Amino acid sequence: MSNPQELRYSKEHEWLSAAADGVSTVGITEHAANALGDVVFVQLPEVGDTVTAGETCGELESTKSVSELYSPVSGEVTETNQDVVDDPALVNSAPFTDGWLFKVKVSEEPGDLLTAAEYTEFSGS
To answer: Counting C-beta atoms within 10 Å of the first and last residue's C-beta, which end of the chain has fewer, N or C?
Structure first.
């Protein structure tokens, strides 16, 4: 799967889908999901939590390791994907669709997010 063109990407391998209402969806890339291996546990921020761009806000545990989850933007968490908490394998099987992690009302978007082409070059995927 190629990296969807409409998304923006962080160097920590998260993706961001911006919406007109200022609420963006966050997930991890297929590259990150493949590197992690089979995800068996997902810890997400709580609704109402404030997240900061580049800071940890949760973790993903796989059969190989535990990886921190970083927020690509700053803002308030408005929704979490309970389906991923209940079935962490969605992160591996559908990282850009059903495997999204949380939604955030963006207060600040950093200028260092990558386009799909830039992320593909950066990650080699």
So the answer is: N
